[in-house]
Amino acid sequence: MRMIREKTVAQLTYLPNVFPVNCYLVEEEDGLTLVDAALPNNVKAILQAADQLGKPIKRIVLTHAHDDHIGALDGLKEQLPKAQVYISKRDAKLLEGDRSLEKGEPNTPIRGGVPKKVRTKPDVLLQEGDRIGSLLAVAAPGHTPGSMAFLDTRNDILIVGDAFQTRAGVAVSGQMKLLFPFPAMATWDKQTSLETARRLRDLKPSLLAAGHGNMVPQPQRLIEKAINVAERSLAK
Questions:
Q1: Can you count the helices (H) and strands (E) in the chain?
Q2: pLDDT 10s digits, 164-198
Q3: At 179, is the secondary structure helix, strand, or coil?
């Protein structure tokens, strides 16, 4: 996996030039927090990246429960039995393979690859405002009902999962980029995604770190443009 470091965050990317799948290592004083778990065959590469940074992985935090974000979870947990696993209370249902909607949610089907045989159980069910070391948990529904983003409060780096994509251009989840359409195809509710994008914009991130595509420094202008495109699309 390719590794690129920005301040306290290292982006690990599988197949960066073909089908980029990202996860992130966030450095803390006591060790590393892994945000997302990429694909099943990425276990060794993730552990090697942690060794390169010279710190152990203490926590595994999941933005949402799609296959390309939790793929290495079981393999990592086998190697790191003491690492705590965090996911939102809502997406914990998806982690168990349960696609059912909850009362009050938009009546659109949950899309994307939802796991069926994950053995690992989360240790902590996250809610908006929770802290994981230096990371602030931010509710970011839309791509899935329980998606979350994580703001590094030391430097305002924002890890968003698939609330945005940056591959083929910055886009709000659900808005199709023909050169990389897959996040849009796997999005649950476009209107909810747009509302989330506005909230994430208001955090004024110094850097945007998405699940697919390169990190984007000083992303405000591109985020605003992506929101405008989504607004026009949904107004049609």
A1: 7, 15
A2: 999 999 999 999 999 999 999 999 999 999 999 99
A3: coil
The token pair at 47 is 């552990």
Q: List pLDDT tens digits, range 200-231.
A: 999 999 999 999 999 999 999 999 999 999 99
- Enter the pTM of the model: 0.98
Q: Locate tokens 């992506």: which residue?
A: 226
In this structure, are residues 9 and 152 in contact, taking their beta carbons and an 8 Å threshold? yes
Q: What are phi and psi of 183, to 5 degrees?
A: -60, -40
Nearest to 96 by CA among 84, 114, 78, 81: 114
How far, in Å, CA of 85 to CA of 185, rounded?
Answer: 27
CA distance 161 to 29: 24
Structure tokens at 148: 């979350």
85: DSSP letter: E
- Helix 190-201 and helix 220-235, axial crossing angle in degrees, nearest 10: 150
